[in-house]
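R.M. (postdoc): so does anyone remember the format we settled on? I'll just put the structure tokens first.
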């Protein structure tokens, strides 16, 4: 089982750092799944029991100049590692001006992701800063727990408003209640609401648009039989939504939200080479 990769392009390094920073703000621990073509940061939360779930997918060819992987066996050419993304984020911060960054799986006193950053130097001798990030290797028998989540059979899918605007609204509402209702319909309308014994506040968004999900089976089809004006809602822990909005450094080209009525809020951020899905369970 071997893994080594190298980043030379500073733009790719900064982009990868932003992705890791985003993940580190969403969870203290997650699984890093490595394949020949992709990297995945996976948080396999049990949404049914109140846990959040996350699936972040990166195409390795858009980030790494070199990428070599030998998985656990020929028929399972993958590696699953449990890692604290904050440790990886801290290591990458020291490498922002690096000439190159190498990442490899090593065996020290425990399995580690070793990150070696070659820093600029005024002399002919290069300076290399090395970080050993402890990881746990996930045995193959547990891999099925960290596969890509199924697209939920949602009732409404809608594009999100500008994220800075949405974050500002949620930040203010957090001071009034622990819970927020997000509701939307197929006319491109979305409301953020809180309702307590003392105050009721609603922020309205209109003309957001609804994503055109295909009918070819590759993605769930938008439920066209619904009344376009009928609102679908999910009541969620406002702190979990705020945490997701606060941590964003991916700058998505498209941001969408799928709602399973009173069950799940499924947030999707798409960039040209990164996709991030986040699942927040609804509360009664």
């Amino acid at each position: 089982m071997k893994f080594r990769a190298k980043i030379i392009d500073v733009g790719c390094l900064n982009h990868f750092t932003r992705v890791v920073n985003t993940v580190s703000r969403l969870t203290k621990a997650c699984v890093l799944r490595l394949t020949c073509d992709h990297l995945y940061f996976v948080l396999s939360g049990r949404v049914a029991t109140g846990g959040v779930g996350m699936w972040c997918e990166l195409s390795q060819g858009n980030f790494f100049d070199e990428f070599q992987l030998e998985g656990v066996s020929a028929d399972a050419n993958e590696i699953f590692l449990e890692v604290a993304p904050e440790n990886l984020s801290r290591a990458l911060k020291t490498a922002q001006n690096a000439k190159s960054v190498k990442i490899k799986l090593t065996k020290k006193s425990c399995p580690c992701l070793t990150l070696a950053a070659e820093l600029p130097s005024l002399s002919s001798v290069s300076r290399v800063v090395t970080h050993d990030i402890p990881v746990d290797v996930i045995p193959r028998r547990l891999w099925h727990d960290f596969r890509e989540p199924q697209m939920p059979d949602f009732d409404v899918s809608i594009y999100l408003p500008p994220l800075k605007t949405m974050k500002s609204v949620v930040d203010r509402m957090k001071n009034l209640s622990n819970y927020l209702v997000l509701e939307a319909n197929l006319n491109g309308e979305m409301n953020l609401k809180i309702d307590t014994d003392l105050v009721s506040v609603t922020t309205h968004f209109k003309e957001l648009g609804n994503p055109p999900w295909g009918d070819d089976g590759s993605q769930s089809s938008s439920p066209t039989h619904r009344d376009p004006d009928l609102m679908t809602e999910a009541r969620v822990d406002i702190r979990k939504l705020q945490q997701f909005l606060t941590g964003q450094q991916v700058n998505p080209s498209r941001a969408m939200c799928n709602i399973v009525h009173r069950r799940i809020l499924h947030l999707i951020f798409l960039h040209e080479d990164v996709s991030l899905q986040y699942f927040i369970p609804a509360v009664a």
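R.M.: ...and that's the designed sequence above, right after the tokens. Also worth knowing: The radius of gyration is 21 Å. Confidence is low (pLDDT under 50) at residues 215-222.
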